[in-house]
Amino acid sequence: MGLIGSAPSAGAADGWCTTTTSVWEDSGRFIQPATSSGSTSCIMGRGSSGSAVAELQRALVNCHELDTGGVDGVYGARTETAVRTIQSRVGLEPDGIYGPDTRMHVFWQYYWNDGDVTCSFL
């Protein structure tokens, strides 16, 4: 099977991150990459693009002070390197692919109902 026909393994993720979803907690919400069905157990890698990538980049830049080349919604070499950095910091295999294991170690932007924004684990 060619790369285009490949999908994430069922055990690793529910599918490709193609959109974002709001995860409500207490007095605000996190916005996280998600599948089209809303699952945050998804995967992205070099070549991915869209709002899911932009939200990941926003977290990497604003919460981890990593260089993604900007928040442009394109999962390129710099975003891949930033993901590798997070993975290395927490003892994961630094493959540069965002998936469920990496998701658990990212500080995400938390949007308080009063308008403040902080960074936190989900």
Fraction in beta strands: 15-25%
Largest sheet: 4 strands, antiparallel
Treating each run of at least 4 consecutive H or I residues as one helix, how many helices?
A: 3
Radius of gyration equals 14 Å
Quantity of strands, as a count: 4
> What sequence of helices (H) and strands (E) makes up the elements?
EEHHHEE
Structural class, please? alpha+beta
Sequence stretches where pLDDT stays below 50 over 5 or more residues: 1-5
- First CA to last CA: what distance? 36 Å
* Largest beta sheet: strand ordering: 1-2-3-4
What does the overall shape look like? globular
What's the rounded overall pLDDT mean? Answer: 90
Helix content: 25-40%
Overall description:
This protein is α+β, with helices and mostly antiparallel strands and 122 residues long. Helices cover 26% and strands 19% of the residues. The chain is built from three helices and four strands; from the N terminus they run ββαααββ. The chain has helices at 51-64, 77-90, 100-103; strands at residues 19-25, 28-34, 108-112, 117-120. It has a four-stranded antiparallel beta sheet, with helices on one face. Strand 3 (108-112) and strand 4 form a beta hairpin. The radius of gyration is 14 Å and the shape is globular.
Short overview:
This protein is an alpha+beta fold and 122 residues long. Helix content is 26%, strand content 19%.
What key attributes describe this structure?
26% helix; 4 strands; globular; single chain; 122 residues; alpha+beta; 4-stranded antiparallel beta sheet
